[in-house]
Design goal:
This protein is α+β, with helices and mostly antiparallel strands. The chain contains one helix and four strands, in the order ββββα. The strands form two sheets. It has a two-stranded antiparallel ribbon with strand order 1-2. A two-stranded antiparallel sheet has the order 3-4. It is rod-shaped, with a radius of gyration of 24 Å.
Length: 88
């Protein structure tokens, strides 16, 4: 038996995920708590990704093309990595 550090419930060893970096060879939280944590973390990561995508779209439209000033569609504006002019 091992106590989960998140929920505090004593659970069987089989209810923990293997972690070779830990001295005990197991993660400190049980599989149930780990699943809840990962689900919550995934939604946070997805929200942050969507926020950054929206921020970049607004930034691209506001800044426009450095060479010609085009700013109609954000998807048409990618960051220019080279020194050459790619638009007319």
């Amino acid at each position: 038996m091992k106590t989960c550090s998140k929920c505090g419930i004593d659970r069987l060893i089989s209810e923990y995920t293997v972690d070779t970096y830990k001295l005990s060879g197991l993660r400190p939280i049980c599989k149930i708590c780990d699943k809840e944590y990962r689900k919550g973390r995934l939604s946070t990561v997805m929200q942050n990704r969507d926020d950054m995508r929206e921020y970049l779209a607004v930034y691209k439209i506001e800044a426009g093309c450095a060479d010609c000033g085009y700013n109609a569609y954000a998807c048409a504006l990618d960051f220019d990595q080279g020194g050459e002019v790619l638009c007319a």
